[in-house]
């Protein structure tokens, strides 16, 4: 079992379908009150790799689907360049509801606080337990620190594999939304680094596939 660096008091049980239904009824923190949808993970039930983001954005909130807004489009482009097929991956977020503040008619992203993140970790822990990925990717600081602890720094430790149990490894890299927010002169380099880190995941997936083929 993949253990999160931050504690989880209770891990809900059931299939991914049942967990998605339970998460939609979660009232463990106040974020559900203003959310349109709970944005649960999506992908194959036994995907070899899981990509974990931070929290949904406005587009994800309206549809209930992860990574479909501007950051999702950038991630799709980076994955394609890295040789990853989104259809083979399980994509989810650390927090399952969109937190925002309103300015006029706009809904502006607001970071979930520590208590909200803690309340939501049960669902991420349950997803990891059900999917049992062999490769885990934390996108952004929130996901990285949930996986590897509060001292983890993306700018210093991104792209480095870490053991996450007997049969799993993980790494962290830039969140595509962070890349989009960067100054133009830094944005290109961060995108190149994101693609390079995702390419390492593609290589690792290829190695796992070859090992399974040889074992057969």
* Helical run tally: 8
Number of strands: 7
CATH architecture designation: 3-Layer(aba) Sandwich
Q: What percentage of amino acids are in beta strands? A: 5-15%
Q: What Rg do the Cα atoms give?
A: 17 Å
Mean pLDDT: 96
How would you sum up this structure in a few lines?
The chain has 216 residues and is of the alpha/beta class.
Commentary on this structure:
The model has no long low-confidence stretch (mean pLDDT 96). This protein has a single domain, classed as Uracil-DNA Glycosylase, subunit E (3-Layer(aba) Sandwich). Helix 3 packs across helix 8. The chain is built from 8 helices and 7 strands. A hairpin with a 5-residue loop joins strand 6 and strand 7. Helix content is 44%, strand content 13%. It has a 5-stranded mixed beta sheet, sandwiched between helices. With 216 residues, it is of the alpha/beta class. Belongs to the uracil-DNA glycosylase (UDG) superfamily. Type 4 (UDGa) family. It holds the Pfam family UDG. GO terms for molecular function: uracil DNA N-glycosylase activity.
What keywords describe this structure?
single chain; alpha/beta; Uracil-DNA Glycosylase, subunit E; 7 strands; 13% strand; globular; DNA damage; Type-4 uracil-DNA glycosylase; UDG_Type-4/5; metal-binding; DNA repair
Walk me through the topology.
Elements: H1 16-24, E1 49-53, H2 58-63, H3 70-82, E2 90-93, E3 100-103, E4 106-109, H4 114-131, E5 135-139, H5 141-148, H6 154-157, E6 162-163, E7 169-173, H7 176-181, H8 184-215
Parallel strand pairs: 1-2, 1-5, 5-7
Antiparallel strand pairs: 3-4, 6-7
Helix pairs in contact: 3-8
Pfam families: UDG
Keywords: 4Fe-4S, DNA damage, DNA repair, Glycosidase, Hydrolase, Iron, Iron-sulfur, Metal-binding
Domain Uracil-DNA glycosylase-like: 40-199
């Amino acid at each position: 079992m993949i253990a999160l660096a931050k504690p989880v008091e209770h891990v809900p049980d059931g299939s991914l379908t049942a967990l998605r239904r339970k998460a939609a009824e979660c009232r463990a923190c106040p974020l559900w009150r203003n959310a349109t949808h709970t944005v649960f993970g999506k992908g194959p039930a036994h995907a070899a790799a899981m990509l974990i983001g931070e929290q949904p954005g406005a587009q994800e909130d309206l549809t209930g689907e992860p990574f479909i807004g501007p950051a999702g489009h950038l991630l799709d482009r980076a994955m394609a360049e890295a040789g990853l097929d989104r259809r083979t991956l399980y994509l989810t977020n650390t927090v399952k509801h969109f937190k925002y503040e309103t300015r006029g008619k706009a809904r502006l992203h607001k970071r979930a606080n520590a208590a909200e993140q803690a309340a939501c970790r049960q669902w991420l822990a349950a997803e990891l337990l059900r999917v049992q990925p062999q490769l885990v990717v934390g996108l952004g600081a929130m996901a990285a620190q949930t996986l590897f602890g509060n001292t983890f720094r993306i700018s210093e430790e991104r792209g480095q594999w870490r053991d996450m149990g007997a049969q799993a490894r993980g790494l962290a890299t830039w969140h595509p939304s962070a890349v989009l927010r960067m100054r133009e002169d830094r944005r290109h380099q961060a995108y190149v680094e994101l693609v390079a880190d995702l390419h390492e995941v593609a290589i690792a997936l290829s190695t796992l596939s070859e090992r399974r083929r040889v074992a057969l």
